[in-house]
Amino acid sequence: MHVRFGKLGQSALGLFAGIVVSSLLVSGCAGGNYSYYQTVLGHAPFSTFAGSSDEPSGDGGGGSSFFDSGGRTNIDPCSEPNARKYVRISMRNTTSDAHIHYFLVLIAYVNGEIYPNGAVCPDDVDLYTSFGYLEIRENEAQEFGNLCVVGPALLYFHKGGQFRSSGGVGGSQFASAIGPAQGTNATYDNFFTSGGVSVPVPDRIYFHNPGTGEGLALKISESSIAPCDILIIGGDPDCEQDSFYYVDESDLITGSVALGVGSGRRVPSEIQGTGCECLGFQEPYQSLAPSGTGASSARCNEFMRGGVIAYAFAREDTNPPYPQLLWRVTDQSGAEVHDFDQRGPMP
Questions:
Q1: Are the CB atoms for 324 and 330 separated by under 8 Å?
Q2: Could you tell me where the DSSP H helices lie in the chain?
Q3: pLDDT value at position 259?
Q4: What are 336-342's contacts with CB under 8 Å, separation 24+?
Q5: 13 and 5 in contact (C-beta within 8 Å)?
Q6: Helix (H, G, I), strand (E, B) or coil at 165
Q7: Where are the domains of the chain?
Q8: H helices within 211-347, ranges in order?
Q9: Residues of the chain with pLDDT under 50
Q10: pTM value?
Q11: pLDDT score of 22
């Protein structure tokens, strides 16, 4: 249900929210802390609160958080060598009884006064836009499904969420989709192949169907009707938003007898490495670790600059299920940061 307020109520709520958020910011309590915004405003600072800078993880020069164990400071991204301005991503489908239709969204912040820990050197914006990121300039905001992306930032939506490329037929034309595994041999994505693709490094990785284009017919969860408006409260929780689907060759959802109606889709809490899955927070994304983080000190939801992410889609209808999108993460040197969840089908 969406809650709207009259003009007088809007003014009062806006004043109240402004006072509370301002006091939190002054006291140092609110920066990047989801719970304060969720409690006070009913919105996450990034996904549904346009007025927040939503600072990426990291201390940016000396602070610490509950989870930090030292060595987690960020350096100026303009000082990073070229190899560390990318992350290599591969994807595969390990289930032989369904296609995967996924919705990959990457968000990167431009480093500066608003995002002092942002991953993007201002001189590298062209690097991102040439790959396919959409630039969102300062003082602008972009609504995207249940998300509100506040500039200066960049947003990448892989293949626009299309199942097949325009006019395409057959497996070779899959766009934001992967065909079934062939027996015990996984099928790799046409773009994010077995060798992986180097992607300009984002601050956050989402799997999120915005409910546009071909995603509209598949979408089950309800998103906010105006995620950039803090006065409109509604939509399903972030951890229950649609991420990907098991479909047939015609892009129709194939359900599961074990889990019932609707189990042809998965949500962020069923994705290994999201804050929903491993931290217990309403954080439906995977995060870039601060640049000084070592492989052994990364949090369960973090990936690394210059590293590799291998994604593997599974379909094991246990109830409750273990993560159905697994990841294996290594750093630039090849050291393991995270391995596939041991409950999954990966060797």
A1: no
A2: 7-27, 34-41, 125-131, 275-278
A3: 65
A4: 336/295, 337/295, 337/298, 337/302, 337/303, 337/304, 337/307, 338/272, 338/273, 338/298, 338/300, 340/272, 340/312, 341/272
A5: yes
A6: coil
A7: 7-338
A8: 275-278
A9: 1-54, 57-70
A10: 0.81
A11: 36
